[in-house]
Amino acid sequence: MAGKSVQHFGPSLGPVRAGALVGVVLAGGEGRRMGPGVLKPLRPLGGRPMVAHVVERLRPQVMDLVVVANDPLPGVRSLKVPVIPDPPDVRRAAAREGRRLGPLAGVLAGMEWALKHHPHAGWILTAPADTPFLPLDLTVRLCGLMHVPEPDVLMVRHGRRREHALAVWSVKLAGDLRRALLEEGLRRVDAFAERYVLEELVWPGGSAPFLNVNTPADLSVAADQLRKRGRAPARPRSRR
Ligand SMILES: Nc1nc2c(ncn2[C@@H]2O[C@H](COP(=O)(O)OP(=O)(O)OP(=O)(O)O)[C@@H](O)[C@H]2O)c(=O)[nH]1
């Protein structure tokens, strides 16, 4: 089913759902556009690894948080967040085929971790490790769109761009996702999401909170933004 844009913030289960989300930071992949050297999530931004910005912004918005990465991320240890790999069987299958995995593998790892550690949570919120200025009112706004019947996937859109890795996912999709990755070799996030009831949160305002850091030039832009924002942590616009 094609995604449906939803732009209003109606009566909702927001506060209930926001408290029941497990956050999943997607920090795998190859970061080829960033070039060789330090892993992309560990690239320093304002004196800290980029992934630390994402963890700090997401942590107050979710009931628990996990980082999915296949490389050791020493810079994450001090953040006291569990770091788990993509599902090993899915990785092995991709390696046998000589194919890259992509963010869907991290989504599956997050779903399976949530099912094991928080069996009543029901939902995960995925966020890429290379988006260091995520809004602090992200889950309130996303969950403000949760209604009955609930969508299976709720993705963020700003302007013409859909943020595939920034979404709320029902963990009920874990079995289907595992099959799609292993048996179909599916890799495209939107191709999977569009099989289900997919809705979008059209983000009000500009795209600045979703600055995606893929290249050294992007990293310079992010460092400039950080300097302009000053050291004070941003405050959410809406209550939590
Ligand atoms: N867990 C996990 N995360 C991934 C994987 N591939 C990409 N990601 C994450 O998904 C987000 C978007 O990834 P991309 O920027 O499209 O890919 P990338 O591999 O990081 O970078 P490029 O090689 O330059 O395309 C980033 O936060 C990545 O860390 C993967 O195989 N596993």
From TrEMBL:
Binding sites annotated in the UniProt record for Mg(2+): 130
GO molecular function, one term: metal ion binding
Listed cofactors: Mg(2+)
Reaction equation(s) it catalyzes: Mo-molybdopterin + GTP + H(+) = Mo-molybdopterin guanine dinucleotide + diphosphate
One cellular component (GO) term of this entry: cytoplasm
Locations listed in the record: Cytoplasm
Enzyme Commission number: 2.7.7.77
InterPro entries: MobA-like_NTP_Trfase, Molybde_CF_guanTrfase, Nucleotide-diphossugar_trans
CDD domains: MobA
Residue ranges constituting the MobA-like NTP transferase domain according to the UniProt record: 23-191
Keywords: Cytoplasm, GTP-binding, Magnesium, Metal-binding, Molybdenum cofactor biosynthesis, Nucleotide-binding, Nucleotidyltransferase, Transferase
Binding site for GTP: 26-28, 40, 86, 130
Family assignment from sequence similarity: Belongs to the MobA family.
Function as written in the Swiss-Prot or TrEMBL entry: Transfers a GMP moiety from GTP to Mo-molybdopterin (Mo-MPT) cofactor (Moco or molybdenum cofactor) to form Mo-molybdopterin guanine dinucleotide (Mo-MGD) cofactor.
Record text on subunit structure and interactions: Monomer.
Domain notes: The N-terminal domain determines nucleotide recognition and specific binding, while the C-terminal domain determines the specific binding to the target protein.
Protein name listed in UniProt: Molybdenum cofactor guanylyltransferase
Native organism: Reyranella soli
